[in-house]
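Incident log, structure service

09:12 report received: a user says their structure output differs between two submissions of the same chain.
09:20 pulled the input from the user's history:
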Amino acid sequence: MAVYNQSGPNRLPGETQVTRSASALDRGLERLRLAAIILLVAAVALVALVAYDAVAVTHALVVFLCLLGATLIPWRLQDAEQAKGEAAGGAAVETAVVRALVEGMPDPAVLLDRAGRVLHFNSAAGQLAPALRKNELAQFALRSPEIITALRGAIATNEPRRTTYLDHVPVDRWMELIVMPIAVPSAFGGSESYLLMTFHDQTPLRRVEEMRADFVANASHELRTPLAALSGFIETLQGPAREDTRARERFLAIMQAQATRMARLIDDLLSLSRVELSAHVRPDTLIDIVPIIREVVDGLEPLARDRQVEIEVTLPTTAVTIAGDREELLRVFENLIENALKYGASGGRVMVSLVIVAGVDGASEVRVAVRDFGPGIAPEHLPRLTERFYRVDVGDSRSQGGTGLGLSLVKHIVNRHRGRLLIESVLKKGATFTACFPQPKPPAAA
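09:34 re-ran on a clean worker, output below:
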């Protein structure tokens, strides 16, 4: 385990002194090699002068030592900026080419010096860790224990390190970190050690694995009932009801309803899996949601007439823009309004409204509320409404054609849009479902 001192963060004891001594020795030997001919000629000339008694031996020795000392002094009359960079130990990587290479990497990448200070990082790394600052220690910006452990291990051993960690902000993402030591040749034949950190998003692979497992478990459980019903009706039609026209028509209608339910269940499962797969990618297309809500209300008018429910819509006359995915937003409002029409039909009306609420930090929030005046929901059910296949009344839900996935799908879509879903209900006074979305700041304010 590495031990750290106060003289240099993330350096081993004596590491700074040893490195500097080795670098100074290398530079001294390099200067002697370059000045070897001059020193040889000077030595021959001084020996000749001593042989002819033109110069005393002591004086000749002093002159030679002065020449030798002059060769060891790092005289440099040009390229002062480069000399300053080499003195800092970072001239080899403080170039436009290195900066361009790091910036051009598709994954988040950070280049560190041997002490763990940030030299370069690309825009993807800046988005992943906004606290990254040049010439500051990377561990101050990347506070995950797994990252710090891997970074310290690479610094201490100068060997590659690899780790996987879960990033919870802004959404859960599985990330793989690779810390790779890099040896860069120095100006005097030696080499300087640097560290390249690259981050790889493993979330899609994890989501695919979870989606496969969840689909098998949930589909096998929820499809068992309609499949059993279909099998029973088919046996009945092949046997006792073979010649019964009235029974055949009734059974075929039930079979069609069960097949439709299975198709809708599979469609909801696939939609939910697709949303979860892209949950870490926030939509960036600006969309006016007012016409989307009107389109959904118009499409559900036949259902409202069948249930004898009046839909009251309160929407602004101007555009209300958010960053979102149009098809997913359609699914959100369709599920919320359809649920209100089905389960709150006894109240006789459903209210759909849109308001813009100003936040304390200056950011506005768009809230779309769907309220019904039906029987309401008991308080103990509210925390679990957005769970997969959770139903307050299983029989009522299945009779209404529900799959138990609608609110779960709504929650995941709203989360992907970096919003939130609020649920309020009082027994015998109806329920209100509110989808809240952050509104983009205007360019001037941004």
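09:41 both user submissions now match this output. Likely a transient worker issue. Closing.
09:42 reviewer note: The first strand starts at residue 109 and ends at 113. The mean pLDDT is 79.
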